Amino acid sequence: MIESKDIADYFDATLSNIKPLVRLDFDIHLYFSQNQHMVVLFKKGEIPSAEIIQKYRSKGLNKIWIHKNNFETFKAYSASRTKEGSLLSTLLNSTELGGELKKAAGKEIAKVLLQNATQAKTFQEQQEINKKNFQTIRDILDQTALQAESCISEILKLCDVDPVLTHGINVATYAVVFAMAFGKIVPDLLADIALAGLLHDIGVSQIPISILQTPWQAMDREIFREYAEHVHFSLKLINEFSVSTSERVKLLIDQHHEKFNGSGYPNGYKAFQFNDIAQLLTMADLVDSISNGRWDGKKRTLKDALDVINKLESVTPTPEYFNPEILKAVFYWISHTETSEPLTQVVDTVSSQAKYIKQLS
Ligand SMILES: [Fe+2]
Ligand SMILES: [Fe+2]
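Above: query sequence and fe (ii) ion SMILES. Below: predicted holo structure tokens.
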């Protein structure tokens, strides 16, 4: 049923504002001025496919009308997601899509994000891409919004927010991307990884600023010993301010400076004692730390940071930082861009599946 037949009760937008595969929280109408007729194009609750949106656009339809009561809802909908984020959100929320399809689609999205992320030519460009990629995985955090927000808002008040937050955001983003690329698509796990990424370094707020300004490579034993305490402080702050944080988040944070050869800290875990998900968080942390200059004082793009890691690992007879299988896989994804539009294929696959779901319901 149409909310009102009076065009004055509506505002207009265009079909290009409509995101494929995102469930609508409002009705979308067409208006025919000749006979002042209003019809519903998509109903609240529908998930328009890319195909149907394209079909209407190819027929010359563009202007759509939405009831003014839904203005705020529409604003939030328009601002929320990137194309990859919409798709990811659909995947995560879908109870109908099969596990294998979800995994495959998650992997493809991850590879697209990684390939985009390694296209930056300058550090500034890198920062922009990082921000966009975070927008994509933001929905994952929204899945556990209560847990994340109460925790983050309390704890970040204690921090020198900017550097810690930007680094936390990048680590959360790339740890989630790495996890998806390895076929992990369970929302709770991804939310824990994202939260661990955001919070892993909050303990640096308890370390003297002079120590934080020293790049890792320039730290002497004493400075390093003090700096290494931040892992303990991160966990202490979380235990004090966010008692509901899951044990898995704490485990990931506890291990974010461990190394595959056992020379990391604080526990010196070795090889398979080193949790395989924590290794992904650690890789994201090292990549961003090499990129943002924390490692040796020099800022780099993500691609250059990954090259540094590759060189570090290739000069030692046994791998220092990571399980070689993990590193090999990451390099394979970023260097194999032969599938020019993998995301389009994913959209098509999920679209046809979504259509099938709609027919069933
Ligand atoms: Fe750290
Ligand atoms: Fe870090």
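The two ends are 20 Å apart (CA to CA).
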